[in-house]
Amino acid sequence: GNEGPRGFLMKLFPLAAFAALATLAALPAAADEGMWTFDNPPAAAIEKATGVKLDAPWLKHVRESTVRLETGCTGSFISGDGLILTNHHCAEDCVAQNSSEGNDLVAAGFLAGTREKELKCTEDAVSVLVGSEDVTAKVAAALDGVPADKVVEARRAALTKLEQACEDESKKAKGGPLKCERVSLYQGGQYWLYKYRRYDDVRLVFVPERDIAAFGGDPDNFQFPRWCLDMSILRAYEGGKPAKTPTHLSFDWSGAQPGDAVFVSGHPGNTDRLLTASQLEVQRDTFLPFWLMRYSELRGRMIQYSKGGEEPRRIAEHYLNIIENSIKVRRKQFDALLDPALIASAGQKEKALREAVAGKPEFSGTGAAYDRIATAQDTWRNILVPYTFTEGAAAFNSELFAHARTLVRAAAERTKPNEARLAEYTDARLPAVEQALKSDAPVYPDFEVLRLSFGLERMREWLGPDDPLVRRVFGNDSPDTLANRLVRQSTLGDAAARMALYQGGQAAIDASADPMIRFAAAVDPRSREFRKTYETEVEGPVAREQEAIAKARFAQYGTSVYPDATFTLRLSYGTMKGWAEKGEEVRPWTELSRAFERATGEPPFRMPERWLAAKDRLDLSTRVNFTTDNDIVGGNSGSPMLNAKGEIVGLAFDGNIHSISGSYWFDGRTNRSVGVHPAFIRAALEKVYDAKGLLAEIDAK
């Protein structure tokens, strides 16, 4: 259920829905709440709540053992030779890309008997945070005196220069080159450079069948009790050999007991706990209803396509899982925003900060900052629909179009000075662009046509047939004829064709007759116009005003509060704990016996054959899944759940239904994280999959 923000959400949600964040005053966090940066953990609060005193070596070891999957999840090193533990749903894209008609690894599972048989995940990379640097003062100096309408460009240029200088410096240092990434915390209150060691050769070692990894399917998603082996094991390679990772985590196979302290180290993707009341209203009134209408209909199309046979089902499965998961998230977020108490709470916190800094001349602009953010929200409300259908993913929902847009923009942007480019095409980001273009992941034309034609239909419906861009896009075509022509006549499904265009630069793009390239080039000017409007009239003013609010907020609270999630490394603390549901206590763990009792033989409650065959060898009292009151969100999928010694006592894979409102606020009474119990992992590897070699590597000290 915990979707990853980049690989999953960024394909589905417009960038601006995540970017248009602003600060409101937040009172210091409740005892167990928060996703804390590793440089600023609330040590005293942790010790008071859990009795555990975390020291610098513990934090360093956990930080260097936790990896970020650039597709939008978290994982952890679990051996000295680069083994990575994460979720099944975080590796499912790689598994699907290594599958083919008649060889469905998602359904069958996979275990590499030897390292030579490990399968390449061509689109995956993992990163380990090895250092960070606060560059707030440098960014502030670069913005000093910059006119309001130039702030976005000036900030982007300053951060691009800082990123590039950081990467250039790392090439001279011991340990080799690092990837440096700009990070905004506290809504512009702080700017950091995070320094990562990147492994872009990632291979699949083990994954169970989807029937056991996602037992219960969409009906059980975000529910508890649960019985899911939502795990996979990958391996990082360096120079063609397994990466040497002496810093890694070990297991406490017995897991945690109720009341035990549990720590989650991971990369939560996005929270909106610091949105102003006016921003929450736009989410409630405009963004979420618009999103839910479109994707609910797309889900229906996908389900119908899936019923066309075994191969359509296999092709659509992963994307349909993402959409079903995302709809459940968005629906519960919408429910949360319909609760008047949530927006009232935002208003009260806003009022509290205004009153706290009243009479302090240096913060006299705080009230006006909230008002200007509200004005920017009016602009966002007005452009949200056309922005979504041009710069967002909604109209051009297609892997081939994504490649075409990347090629068209990369050609244009690479001719500019590095600091003047769009952020995704700076020199620091181009290696990731090239990796995606080189990937030999299969593209399925029928599925592409389905996705693209649906987006084009909605574009024409929402913008109207007389909209100038709609007329230009369609000409005499219908959505179906246009999508068929663009997809079936394009050569962009071939990685070699893509790389030839990329290496040929602007001349190759201008000369290309590929219809998808010509299409992307035709819509690009209008798309860039909407992006520019968004940056100068929404993002820029919001960023400027949120910095003013952040200064007032820092004066009042400092860093005694945690920043919103930004897909950067965070630590959450809590305990193994159930909750009360409709007057009944929910026990915080499940056992294997009940999974067999629930099995019906039909998806999504079908138990794999090898599990049925192994039933007599298994201890049916083995704990399967469990809950804690850790504060996590999407992106934490695959996070290690740790005890006081820093040993793995669980693998985070979901939250309960109450956790979805955690996007906006944390309710410690009912918000629960759901993890895979280590005893279930060991039983699976030892007694079902006969993965003794893998277990030996994991157990080696």
Describe the overall structure.
This protein is an alpha+beta fold. Helices cover 48% and strands 15% of the residues. The protein is built from 25 helices and 21 strands. Strands 2, 3, 4, 5, 6, 7, 8, 9, 10, 11 and 12 form an eleven-stranded antiparallel beta sheet that branches. An eight-stranded antiparallel beta sheet has the order 1-14-13-19-20-21-18-17. β11 and β12 form a beta hairpin. α11 packs antiparallel against α12, α11 crosses α17 and α15 packs across α20. It is globular. The two termini are 33 Å apart.
Keywords:
eleven-stranded antiparallel sheet; globular; 25 helices; alpha+beta; 15% strand
Give a brief rundown of this model.
With 701 residues, the chain is α+β, with helices and mostly antiparallel strands.
Count of DSSP-assigned helices: 25
Biggest sheet record:
11 strands, antiparallel
Assembly context of the chains: single chain
Distance between the termini: 33 Å
Estimated helix fraction: 40-55%
Percentage of β-strand residues = 5-15%
Question: Shape, please?
Answer: globular
Mean pLDDT: 92
Q: List the uncertain runs.
A: 1-31
Structural class: alpha+beta
Radius of gyration, in Å, reads 25 Å
Number of beta strands: 21
